[in-house]
Amino acid sequence: MIEIFKELSDYSKYFENQLNLSGTILGLLIATSTFILQSGFTSFKYSRSMFLKYYVEQSKFIFLSLAYNIIFSLIVLYLNLNSYTLFFIHIIFALTFAKYFLDFYSHKGFINTIHSTKYNPHKSPLLKYFRYIKNLGFIPNILIYGTIYLVFFYPLHFNYPFQLNQNQIYMTTVSCFAFSILVVIRIIPQFFEFSEQEYKSKTKNEVIDNLDADVSEENKILKDILIKNGRTELQESRKIKNFENLTIYMPENKKEAFFVINAEFKNKDIFEIVESLQEYSFEFYKELSSISVDINSFVLSYFVKIDNDKNRSYFLRSNRTEIDNLKSKYHTPKEFIDNLDNKVINELLRNI
User: Mean pLDDT across the stretch 106-131?
Assistant: First the structure.
């Protein structure tokens, strides 16, 4: 293992300086982040939540990096903890940083995916999470995982297992500080890049805020994301498990995400049909609530055709808050659907 950090003769002086520098940078970062999150996106017409989440996820791992420097500088200067305790605290920071860092790049991959020809067909949240990171490209992936290793795990090679000394803390704090500076330098330019992207997305006639235009544009973004996630029934008729035929279209004159779903069943009893509708709706609502667009109300309006019989209605309306609350309480499709507040279901398909 090649050591790229030289040992210092006076660690106390270094950690005093590190404490002051990290505290100053942290203060500047808090001020910058507060401006961006509170008022920086007020002029944005589309996808505010998407870009706000970008900065929230980014702020989490930068704050953690600077917090590591401040806390470990204080520990070295004023506390006398043994090397095993230091190692344990270091690992907690390392794992938390890895989680926050990957959260950020998963969301960045999500933004990259919906603005490109890439897609994410996975239904599993974990596979979807890492697929968004993979969609960023080979070189960015090397840099992402390499950064996690270099900042927090590379220094662990220079001591006995499960121990951490001052030199290793010095190595980590230097890496954290340099990393934080690089990210902070990019914050303001990134904001103006997003502003330019937002400006270009507007037509020359869009001078004032218009709710209909907002929702229309957000619905287009939402539809594109869903298609890239594998819901091709938004493009063409599709035969999937338990459905003979399934098609979806989104009317443009609605002030919410409104999905008109034509579902056809053949050779199924009513219990199988209701179960299929509940399962599909449950998974659809879970996916909708996880997508970062500026729409909070979702309607699933089914026209259910059974064999050659007439169409029957199966209407569900919900919002992000209700979906998240129900997901935490109920884990089966039937319980979830039964507890939706706003639904109108044909008598044949009700109370099965």
Answer: 87
State residue 351's pLDDT score: 63
Retrieve residue 111's tokens. Answer: 């933004």
CA dist., res. 239 & res. 262, Å (int):
12
Q: Strand order of the sheet with strand 311-319?
A: 238-240, 243-249, 257-265, 297-306, 311-319, 342-345
Looking only at the bridges linking them, the beta strands covering 342-345 and 238-240 are unpaired
Give all strands (DSSP E) within the chain, no chain letters.
238-240, 243-249, 257-265, 297-306, 311-319, 342-345
DSSP string, 222-260: HHHHHHHTT-GGGTS-EEETTEEEEEEE--TT-SSEEEE
DSSP 113-145: HHTSS------SHHHHHHHHHHTT-HHHHHHHH
The token duo for 274 is 């209701």
Whether 148 and 142 have beta carbons less than 8 Å apart is answered as no
For residue 207, name the pLDDT band (cuts at 50, 70, 90).
very low
For residues 39 and 271, which has the higher predicted lDDT (pLDDT)? Answer: 271
CA distance 169 to 152: 10
Distance CA 311, CA 40 (A): 49
**How confident is the model over 215-249, as pLDDT tens digits?**
888 888 899 999 998 899 999 999 988 899 999 99
Question: What backbone phi and psi angles, to 5 degrees, belong to 294?
Answer: -85, 50
